[in-house]
């Protein structure tokens, strides 16, 4: 059978047809565009939980895209395997003219993409990468001396000074949807065939209401109310456009916009300093003698530390795959400072459980809490969980929701006494940091 000449658009962290940079360029390239998604065996094989909600989320997003494509007389071509092998089979089915993709800045993704770039370079087929998941990438926001920022506030100020309507302009992909490769709808491999089971999670809506963004600075720190936008999973998988969200944020609430800038800050840090994945950004923090008590770690994971705000957060995470940002900070601080457990243990646990898991933000958040990060909480700041509760969950609404047995005999006594833990932490940190 004659292979048809197509350009491949490779979906990854950009699961939408609207306002998608690489898709826009593909559709304008003059060759019919065949959209492809690969269930990457390198990633799926690492997931222990076969009911992982993230797989269901991706699957549902792909089903929605497929519905739209079928109406346009086109189809998604979904494959399963290692991308480098999958592309060889795609070459058998299509006469590939070029490949369009949006950049991903995580170390694994960069290595995977380099393999694809090199493979097709040898064949003279262009692989074209575009910026889509951030407003500014790589070297676009640098200090005046040309070096990357390592402190958030000056980075954010520079980001704000550089942003113009040009960077926020949506890509009008819809105008070119007629340019998809026309083909009968292809069947998806079932989730079971991929080795997974569907979950019946209700995912948050991809477009937060304007009132929530408007009041964000007043509501964002209170875990007991719906005071944050829950868009993180959509930003993670690209079911929402960052340009669209940042435009709304710019009009509605500067504090909210600055949170989106934190996300870009951590993406930029990961791009320039990829060794943060395994080591502390501030290298002297790797001298800390962590206690790494496995029983205490297990109690923390299960939400059984006897510190209600910590336990509420961990139970929310275990049950829903989400944890409020304030509580992420408290639980991470508690693990690293009260229990002196290596931030990498907590980071890995969050990575397994968080629906919005994102390497850059998770690593950034953990290193911030442990004090080892680029612009981290100072080592001597040890969150007091009781004061945090008083400030942010004074009516215990959040705690009571997740720890209903709070006032009963069933609730455990604190795993460690706060003043003792604080003193121990300061001693261990000071020793390692020689302060
Ligand atoms: C220890 C720790 C681990 C974290 N792990 C992740 C993670 O794996 N994935 C993730 O997306 N975020 C992570 N965060 C950041 C933050 O907690 C979540 O982005 C936020 O709770 C998501 O909820 P939301 O969408 O309602 O956020 P909102 O408060 O409504 O904020 C809107 C968006 O701004 C961005 N944002 C907000 N706060 C931060 C922040 N501190 N750092 C980076 N981006 C931010 C997110 O994209 C978020 O969706 C972590 C924070 C900590 C302290």
Automatic annotation (TrEMBL):
GO terms for molecular function: deoxyribodipyrimidine photo-lyase activity. Its cofactor is (6R)-5,10-methylene-5,6,7,8-tetrahydrofolate; FAD. Residues 5-135 form the Photolyase/cryptochrome alpha/beta domain. SUPFAM superfamilies: Cryptochrome/photolyase FAD-binding domain, Cryptochrome/photolyase, N-terminal domain. Its EC number is 4.1.99.3. It comes from the Bacteria. InterPro entries: Crypto/Photolyase_FAD-like_sf (IPR036134), Crypto/Photolyase_N_sf (IPR036155), Cryptochr/Photolyase_FAD-bd (IPR005101), Cryptochrome/DNA_photolyase_1 (IPR002081), DNA_photolyase_1_CS_C (IPR018394), DNA_photolyase_N (IPR006050), Rossmann-like_a/b/a_fold (IPR014729). Keywords: Chromophore, FAD, Flavoprotein, Lyase. PROSITE patterns: DNA_PHOTOLYASES_1_1 (PS00394), DNA_PHOTOLYASES_1_2 (PS00691), PHR_CRY_ALPHA_BETA (PS51645). Belongs to the DNA photolyase family. This is Deoxyribodipyrimidine photo-lyase.
């Amino acid at each position: 059978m004659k292979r048809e000449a197509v350009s491949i658009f490779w979906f990854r962290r950009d699961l939408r047809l609207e306002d998608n940079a690489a898709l826009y360029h593909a559709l304008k390239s003059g060759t019919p565009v065949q959209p492809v998604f690969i269930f990457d065996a390198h990633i799926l094989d690492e997931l222990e939980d076969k009911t992982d909600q993230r797989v269901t989320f991706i699957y549902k997003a792909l089903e929605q895209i497929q519905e739209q494509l079928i109406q346009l007389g086109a189809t998604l071509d979904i494959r399963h395997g290692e991308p480098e092998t999958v592309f060889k089979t795609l070459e058998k089915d299509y006469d590939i003219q070029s490949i369009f993709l949006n950049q991903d800045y995580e170390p694994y993704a960069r290595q995977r993409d380099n393999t694809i770039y090199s493979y097709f370079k040898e064949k003279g087929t262009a692989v074209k990468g575009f910026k889509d998941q951030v407003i500014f990438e790589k070297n676009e926001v640098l200090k005046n001396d040309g070096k990357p920022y390592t402190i958030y506030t000056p980075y954010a100020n520079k980001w704000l000074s550089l942003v113009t309507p040009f960077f926020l302009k949506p890509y009008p992909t819809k105008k070119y949807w007629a340019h998809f490769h026309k083909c009968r709808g292809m069947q998806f491999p079932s989730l079971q065939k991929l080795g997974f089971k569907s979950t019946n999670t209700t995912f948050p809506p991809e477009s937060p209401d304007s009132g929530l963004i408007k009041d964000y600075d007043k509501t964002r720190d209170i875990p007991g109310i719906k005071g944050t936008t829950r868009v993180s999973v959509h930003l993670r998988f690209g079911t929402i456009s960052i340009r669209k969200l940042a435009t709304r944020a710019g009009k509605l609430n500067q504090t909210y916009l600055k949170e989106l800038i934190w996300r870009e800050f951590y993406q930029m840090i990961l791009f320039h300093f990829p060794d943060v994945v395994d080591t502390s950004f501030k290298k002297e923090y790797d001298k800390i003698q962590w206690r790494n008590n496995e029983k205490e770690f297990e109690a923390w994971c299960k939400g059984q530390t006897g510190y209600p705000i910590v336990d509420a957060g961990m139970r929310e995470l275990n049950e829903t795959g989400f944890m409020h940002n304030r509580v992420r900070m408290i639980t991470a601080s508690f693990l690293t400072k009260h229990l002196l457990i290596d931030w990498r243990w907590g980071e890995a646990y969050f990575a397994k459980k968080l629906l919005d898991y994102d390497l850059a933000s998770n690593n950034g958040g953990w290193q911030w809490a442990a004090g080892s990060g680029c612009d981290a909480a100072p080592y001597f700041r040890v969150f007091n969980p009781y004061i945090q509760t008083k400030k942010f969950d004074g009516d215990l609404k959040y705690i009571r929701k997740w720890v209903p047995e709070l006032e009963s005999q069933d609730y455990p006594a604190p795993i460690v006494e706060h003043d003792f833990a604080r003193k121990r932490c300061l001693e261990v940190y000071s020793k390692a940091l020689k302060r």
